[in-house]
Amino acid sequence: MVVSRRVHRRLVLRRKFQVLRALTCSKSVRKSNIIMDAFNYIKQLKLMIEAMKKQYANLINKVPKEVKVEKIENGFLVRVTSEKGKDILVSVLEVFEEMGLNVVHARVSCTHSFCMEAIIETDQVETLEVKEVTQAISKALEKKIGVRAAPFDTM
After folding, report:
1. Which of 84, 78, 33 is nearest to 61 (CA)?
2. Pairwise CA distance, residues 133 & 138, whole Å
């Protein structure tokens, strides 16, 4: 009974080393070398993960900062993209309120960056220009995150 347990354990351990050898593409047969190859393989994987995290962080930081405003029937379509910051949505909505604009529909996402698309209406469509709305939103973004938003071509 004791001998069969030892043999069974030895077989299980041998299978595990074979799997480990296959995973790490180790050419060695010795257990100590297989373990060292596995250790080096894990180290390489950790380095690859760190490189991917840095690359991901760089991509997130390169989110374009832009404000796009288009004139529609009796209001404007506003698209804002910028990096995440505290109370950005609040400051943009305050700008709308100060200008006498009413938000009819809004879609906001703050997963990786701040993205907002809103349809706003006003009674002063003829007097209010796209450029004025764009500049007001850009100033609000500058105050909150300290980054100048690139105005997008207006239609």
Report:
1. 84
2. 9
